[in-house]
């Protein structure tokens, strides 16, 4: 407890008795009676041979229960095990290599490290660090090609995480880093540690081929990453049809079914090969295991097929479509629960282009805006 606040009252013996109060604050000053604590108590680390001088091996974590002026900053010292000065320890507790290690020369080092706090008198603690020297990488990283589809309203893409590269390495201790060619960084970024791909705002319609690579420190491997950006037209939203699927998650649909279903759907609804199928959005149905897919079909001439025409086509081809995935319903208007006839049901569709949903798998990622369907009865 760092302090107490007391209220003290003095009362005299007169009739009637009179009194007054005063507040007494008592501050408890800290004595440096706690030693620094290493977490964990002892460490094990690994470094590959032939790594350059200055390679980070380990970050020490130290805490102190005393107040701040009796705790950090800590002073670190290697007491034993560094007689040949193979290691350095910086003021932040980062252990680095001071030589290029060779597996054939030595496979293990044991260091005794001391941490000293800033109190008076100073308190000290010790930890042991076992450093193993292993052979350098012999396996190249492997990465899965990634294809990303982004759907956005005209010139209104806010940016964000659009997918993640999945890479592995058979060398157990390899740390993978991801890089993107510098001239592409005006539109995209790649997180160097976890491979997440970030798109910046304002992407134009079209196809982007990203020059991404993954490295284990010795081998560098290119990764095929292709980004397709499709900008929605306002006219599309007035001619949409929704297919509702049963018992499927967005990620499973994107990773397992989307390519196959798109191909089957094209065969079912396109009147001419030059017509274009546009998947506008997919999103879960609230409170269920169902999934809605919103789409429109553009004619070669530029206009869009009416929903009633598409629904007729879908109804005739439903059996073929369900060979790919089970369909719960085909929706144009959703007036269930409203006491009005179908022809008196008016539906409006709105797109929130700043509320993006990203469904990412190892091979494919789909980024689309959230949509809202509103229905009302017309007299």
TrEMBL record:
Cadherin domain span: 4-38, 39-143, 154-245
Protein name as annotated: FAT3 protein
Keywords from the named record: Calcium, Cell adhesion, Membrane, Repeat, Transmembrane, Transmembrane helix
Pfam families (UniProt xref): Cadherin (PF00028)
Organism: Lanius ludovicianus (Loggerhead shrike)
InterPro entries, per database record: Cadherin-domain_protein, Cadherin-like_dom, Cadherin-like_sf, Cadherin_CS
GO (cellular component) term, any one: plasma membrane
GO biological process: homophilic cell adhesion via plasma membrane adhesion molecules
UniProt KW Cell inner membrane keyword: no
């Amino acid at each position: 407890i760092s302090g107490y606040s007391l209220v003290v009252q003095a009362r005299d013996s007169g009739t009637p008795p009179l009194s007054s109060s005063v507040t007494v604050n008592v501050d408890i000053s800290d004595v440096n009676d706690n030693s620094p604590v290493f977490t964990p108590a002892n460490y094990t680390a690994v470094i590959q041979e032939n790594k350059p001088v200055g390679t980070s091996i380990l970050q020490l974590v130290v805490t102190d229960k005393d107040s701040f002026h009796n705790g950090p900053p800590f002073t670190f010292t290697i007491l034993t095990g560094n007689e040949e000065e193979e290691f350095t320890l910086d003021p932040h507790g980062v252990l680095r290599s001071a030589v290029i290690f060779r597996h054939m020369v030595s496979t293990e080092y044991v260091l005794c490290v001391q941490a000293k706090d800033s109190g008076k008198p100073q308190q000290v603690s010790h930890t042991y660090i076992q450093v193993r020297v292993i052979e350098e990488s012999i396996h190249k990283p492997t990465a899965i090609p990634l294809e990303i589809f982004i759907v956005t309203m005209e010139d209104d893409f806010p940016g964000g995480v659009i997918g993640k590269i999945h890479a592995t390495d058979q060398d157990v201790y390899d740390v993978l880093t991801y890089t993107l060619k510098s001239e592409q960084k005006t539109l995209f970024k790649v997180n160097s540690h976890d491979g997440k791909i970030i798109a910046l705002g304002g992407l134009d319609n079209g196809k982007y081929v990203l020059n991404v690579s993954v490295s284990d420190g010795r081998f560098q491997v290119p990764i095929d990453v292709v980004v397709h950006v499709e900008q929605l037209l306002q006219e599309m939203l007035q001619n949409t049809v929704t297919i509702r699927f049963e018992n499927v998650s967005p990620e499973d649909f994107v990773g397992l079914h989307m390519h196959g279903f798109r191909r089957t759907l094209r065969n079912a609804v396109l009147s001419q090969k030059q017509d274009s199928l546009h998947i506008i959005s997919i999103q879960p149905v609230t409170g269920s295991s169902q999934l809605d897919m919103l789409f429109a079909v553009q004619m070669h001439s530029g206009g869009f097929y009416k929903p009633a025409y598409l629904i007729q086509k879908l109804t005739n081809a439903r059996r073929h479509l369900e060979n790919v995935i089970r369909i719960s319903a085909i929706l144009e208007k959703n007036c269930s629960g409203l006491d009005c006839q179908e022809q008196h049901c008016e539906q409006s569709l709105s797109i929130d282009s700043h509320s993006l949903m990203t469904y990412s798998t190892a091979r494919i990622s789909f980024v689309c805006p959230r949509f809202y369907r509103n229905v009302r009865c017309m007299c």
